[in-house]
Design brief:
- The protein is of the alpha/beta class.
- It has one domain: 2,3-Dihydroxybiphenyl 1,2-Dioxygenase, domain 1, CATH 3.10.180.10.
- The protein has 6 helices and 17 strands.
- The chain has a 9-stranded mixed sheet.
- The longest helix has 14 residues.
- The radius of gyration is 19 Å and the shape is globular.
- The N and C termini lie far apart (about 55 Å).
C-alpha cells in the first residue's frame, strides 16, 4: 500500500556558508555571479539573485574554515511547520526554536543524522526592490543586474554524508522528500541520491563522503536557465584568474548542464545552465543508475570530473584545495 505523501515542505529557501575570506567571497558572488548584497549584520552578509523572491537566499558568515552554516527549508503552511517540528522532535534530532533571522520569522533548527544544521520556517520577508532596481516586468522581483553574468535563482544544495542511506531516509521520513534519482553500489546501497519536495529533480542531493567524514558540504548551486551563460561565465572566471574545476558539461543524472568552481572562501559552487527536467508525475518512479549505466550517469558529455571532485568538501579535512583569491 502506498504511503500517504508528506506535503509539508515547499522548497529550499536559503543556505548559509562559512568563509574565512568573507569580502573575497562576497566579491565573487557579486562580480562573477551578478548577485547583490541585501543586508549586512555582524559577521554575516546576506545576498540574493535577481529572480529570488525572498529577501535573501545566500548568507556568507565569517568563520575560520569554510563549510555549511545551515540550510533552510520553507514549510507549506504554519500548520505544516508544526507537524514537521513534532515529527523531528519525536526522532530526537531537534535543537530548538530561534526567533528568526534577517529575511524570515521564527525557525525550528535541527540536525540531520550526519550533523548538518537545518532549519524550517513559515514566515518570510519578500524582497522589495528600491525604486532604482524596479523593473516593468512585474513577475520579476528586481531588474537584471548589469554586472557579472547574473544567476537567476538558488537551485539546490549537495551534502556529503558518512552514511548516505541513513541521511536519505531521514529526509524522506522526517520531511517528505522524494528520491528522484540515485546511484547504487553493487549491494544496492546508495552511493548518491537526488531528492526534492518540489518539481525540480533535486532540492537536496546527498553523496557518500569519500573521506569518511561527517557534516561536510559538497556544493551549493545557482541557476541560469541558458547553457550559453556557462560559456560566458567561464570566460569571466578564466580572465580573472579563477580555476574552473569542471565543465561546462552535462550530467546524465538530472540532465543538467553544469560548471563547478571553488569560490575564494573555499566552498564549491555549481552553476546550472538549464534545469535539466522537471517532475510533475505524483507517482514518479526513482531512476536508478548502476553497473554499466554509470558511465553516462555522471558525465553525459564533456570532460570527466577530476578525482578532487569526489574527495574535496568543506570543511577541508585531509586534502588541501587549490584556492582562488
Amino acid at each position: 500500500m502506498t504511503k500517504e505523501p508528506i506535503l509539508d515542505v515547499a522548497h529550499l529557501a536559503h543556505v548559509e556558508i562559512h568563509s574565512p575570506k568573507v569580502e573575497a567571497s562576497v566579491a565573487f558572488f557579486k562580480d562573477i555571479m551578478g548577485m547583490s548584497v541585501a543586508h549586512r549584520e555582524g559577521k554575516s552578509v546576506y545576498m540574493r539573485a535577481y529572480e529570488d523572491h525572498y529577501h535573501n537566499t545566500l548568507i556568507i558568515t565569517e568563520n575560520e574554515e569554510a563549510g555549511l552554516g545551515h540550510l533552510a527549508l520553507r514549510a507549506t503552511s504554519p500548520q505544516a511547520l508544526e507537524r514537521r517540528v513534532a515529527a523531528i522532535e519525536e526522532m530526537g534530532c531537534g535543537i530548538g526554536w530561534i526567533d528568526g533571522d534577517i529575511g524570515h520569522g521564527p525557525a525550528y533548527q535541527f540536525h540531520s543524522p550526519d550533523g548538518h544544521k537545518v532549519e524550517i520556517f513559515w514566515d518570510v520577508e519578500y524582497y522589495k526592490a528600491p525604486e532604482e532596481e524596479k523593473t516593468p516586468l512585474l513577475n520579476r522581483p528586481q531588474r537584471r543586474p548589469n554586472y557579472g553574468v547574473p544567476v537567476r535563482r538558488l537551485d539546490h544544495i549537495n551534502l556529503l554524508a558518512k552514511e548516505t542511506n541513513k541521511n536519505v531516509e531521514f529526509y524522506e521520513e522526517a520531511l517528505g522528500f522524494k528520491v528522484r534519482e540515485r546511484i547504487l553500489a553493487e549491494d544496492d546501497s546508495d552511493i548518491a541520491a537526488w531528492l526534492s519536495v518540489s518539481n525540480l529533480v533535486h532540492d537536496i542531493a546527498i553523496m557518500g563522503d569519500a573521506l569518511g567524514e561527517e557534516g561536510r558540504l559538497h556544493h551549493i548551486c545557482y541557476w541560469y536557465g541558458f547553457p550559453q551563460h556557462l560559456s560566458d561565465v567561464a570566460d569571466l572566471l578564466i580572465e580573472r584568474g579563477y580555476e574552473i574545476e569542471a565543465g561546462p558539461g552535462k550530467h546524465g543524472v538530472t540532465q543538467a548542464c553544469f560548471l563547478y568552481v571553488v569560490e575564494p572562501g573555499g566552498n564549491r559552487v555549481e552553476l546550472f545552465g538549464d534545469p535539466g527536467y522537471q517532475i510533475f508525475d505524483p507517482d514518479w518512479k526513482t531512476v536508478e543508475w548502476k553497473g554499466k549505466d554509470l558511465e553516462k550517469a555522471i558525465i553525459w558529455h564533456g570532460s570527466n570530473l577530476p578525482q578532487e571532485f569526489f574527495e574535496y568538501g568543506t570543511p577541508v579535512k585531509r586534502k588541501t584545495p587549490v584556492k582562488n583569491s
